[in-house]
Amino acid sequence: MCGIVGYTGYENAEGIIVDGLKRLEYRGYDSAGIAVLTDKGLQVRKKKGKIENLEKLLMEESLTGTTGIGHTRWATHGSPSDVNAHPHLSMDGKIAVVHNGIVENYVELREDLAKNHGIKFITETDTEVIAQLISVKYGENGGNLENAVRDTVKMLKGAYAICVIAADTPDKIVAYRKDAPLIVGLGKKRNFIASDIPAVLKYVKEILLVENQELVICTPEQVKIYNSEGREVSREPMFIKWSIEDAEKGGYEHFTIKEIYEQPKAIKETLMRRIDDEGHVKLDGIYISAEELNSYDKIYIVACGTAYHAGLVGKYAIEKMARIPVEVDIASEFRYRDPLVDEHTLFIAISQSGETLDTLEALREAKSKGARVLSVVNVVGSSVARESDDVFYTWAGPEIAVASTKAYTTQLICMYLIALYFGRLRGTITDEYYSFVLKELEAIPEKIEKVLEKAPEIENLARHLYNRTQVFFIGRGLDSAVSYEGSLKLKEISYINSFAIAAGELKHGTIALMEPETIVIALATQDALFDKMYSNIVEIKARFAHVVAIAKEGNTKIEAESSEVIYIPQCADEVTPLLSVVPLQLFAYYVAREKGEDIDKPRNLAKSVTVE
Length: 612
Ligand code: AGP
What we know:
The structure is a single chain. The protein has 20 helices and 25 strands. The chain is α/β, with parallel strands linked by helices. An eight-stranded antiparallel β-sheet has the order 3-2-4-1-10-9-11-15, with helices on one face. A seven-stranded antiparallel β-sheet has the order 5-6-7-8-12-13-14, covered by helices on one side. A five-stranded parallel β-sheet has the order 17-16-18-19-20, sandwiched between helices. It is globular, with a radius of gyration of 26 Å. It binds 2-deoxy-2-amino glucitol-6-phosphate (AGP). Residues 304-307, 351-353, 356, 359, 402-404, 492, 605, 608-609 line the site of 2-deoxy-2-amino glucitol-6-phosphate.
């Protein structure tokens, strides 16, 4: 989400910055802009939509100057538009800012700037507040840009990275990082700032990673970094050997594996924004009173593919914690069934892209029947988000690979948060249970890291099993919901015929298919159902199928009946899907890689399905 590029040197900045922005396109964006310090002062060009739109504008109104900043914006505050695009200028036009992240206290700051400094705002963004504030501090600091930025960041709450230039401070970029990525590219007589390495890799190979709460002063001749106490820090540059293409993938071979590894970070991001200082869940300003919640006689969760599978876990969590009946439906089925929906229904749509036509149409159907619509969406400003009454963003960051991975786990987090919030509001869970589940969720990123350490083991397994033609995924309770997702992952990227089924259903027909060549991935992570699952595994083993079990650490009893066991860290039964899906994602990935398939773009599939 959002990309920053800053350049200061002796060549014309415009082309270099636009080129850098193009390298950051993969992050996802809805507008792009650039500010250059020209002989007429700071000049800005910005445009909604693709970078080509900005390029067209620059062909008509080019910019000449050797210091500048650029940005690709993924709208958070204010719709995607020319005016809301970055860079933003201060009211006097002398400070230009680009910004990634969110300023949480921008409303208070905005009011204060308007009231006490007569500032008139022209955008809906939180970023404009930063530009205006730096301008005020610039005056108070006698035109010292770095001190103005230092004073400003002390007043900002949230997670952000900013890059600033000033009309009266030529050949200088000042940048600051707090919980959002920022790097410096070191060149000869030119230096760069960017949110990610690909932006600068065409020009430089030496990179400095900016740490949290560090301030960077960049001129064509040198780069200085200061820590939060104002002390200059020295840092060894990293030498980057990757190609530009590699760098976009952060050194990973495919976006799919990169995104699997990004899950701990993505989950932290999703959680961080939703738990307040008192340890309570907040739903992004979505207001549902206890009375209103009690007026719903059911909740419909509607989605497609992986998002539907997240809905299956959502049903479990909401019914267990909030004790409201939940129906989960496939969007393409829901809309043609004349569903029983009215003003006593809460409709939850889940979608990574927010553009899936089936989900969008289902949402419209529910809305037309009087339901309140809450959507769980990754892409900000997407159609599903725009047409919903309330939006709860997953904050997974851009998901490029067609196979959904980090979107799924962040959707799960959102479902748990909604369930906890509703449960507390309705008084259907105790305070102890509420805090217990929240703690379990907060521990998930670290536990996923532990599962990811098993990648070599899973890769080895894939090397032995990749040429099988039939794979079953089985489980009970929450494990059965995860089985569907594991099966979909395997079939969509490795093209192996796979099938998921609730383990208890096996003996009602499917067990007829078990033979020695069959692989059965058996999820047995639910303590409460472990013995039942164990019996299912024994039955399968008796038919000589190859059983790969997924179990919690310590449940070693299962080893006797399984060919392999992949252990996940101990956790509460409620949250196992967040961990147990990871080995399944890795297995699908390594099988597809072993088979030499086009993993990021599987045949016949599209990232967002905007047709029926
Ligand atoms: C998942 O790996 C798939 N590519 C697909 O099932 C996807 O989840 C589905 O098309 C829904 O997409 P959405 O989340 O963007 O609505």
